[in-house]
Amino acid sequence: MSSDATSAKSPFNASRERVERVLCFTAHPDDIDFGAAGTIAAWTAAGVEVSYCIMTDGDAGGFDPAHREEIISMRAEEQRQAAALVGVTDVHYLHERDGYLEPTHGVIKQVVKLIREIRPDVVLAMHPERNWDRIQKSHPDHLAVGEIVTRAVYPAVENPFAYPELAEAGLEAFRLPWLWLFAGPETRENYFVDVTEHIDAKLAAIRIHTSQHPDPEGMERAVRGMLRHNASRAGMPDGRSAEAFHVVEVNGSQTIAGF
């Protein structure tokens, strides 16, 4: 991905880093498609294995009262189809209640368990810090995902004495190399992925979530505008589109174990 990425004081170097598995955590079906589907399409096209974990069923989403009885199954099917469009078939759910997500040890333990099972090179999640410039990015469930995953990534995933029953079940401690966060404050974003060649796949994935979009044309205009804005901030040429991330090196060659 070296030709598709721009670093802005990020430790991640796409031409140097080996990424084989990625595990993505979001709050609701459709979050990942808005935030990172272009990057995910690029990864899967390059042979990277990508898995999703969605913490709630999105049961409080939608805009049509007629959908209330079937909204959970509708959103699960929408996410399945959207994931397939960008090369993802492995989708997990924690089945927490939409709007009630909290960083409890019960949820954190489930996240630690899944990370230890998949042992990814990159964990991608929503940002734990509120975006005051566009507060819609900072749904309380989004912030909770960021806090849950950050707490899981350090120190619990790599501490063999955290949730010891996991190690007893054969899920050994694991030192994650990279944490990528999205939907946070622009001032935190330090890495941009050029997704110009994957816009069609990203928009197609977003459009699948018909239960959530009363104005699909307006949604598409807004997404295209945000992608162009990201590319401009990254210094990419006119006409390019990018997704933006806050990349954190969790364990590198210079990392000293701290737990």
Automatic annotation (TrEMBL):
EC number(s) given by UniProt: 3.5.1.-
Gene source species: Arthrobacter ramosus
InterPro entries for the chain: GlcNAc_PI_deacetylase-related, LmbE-like_dom_sf
SUPFAM superfamilies: LmbE-like
Example of a GO MF term: hydrolase activity
Keyword tags: Hydrolase, Zinc
Domain of life: Bacteria
Protein name: PIG-L deacetylase family protein
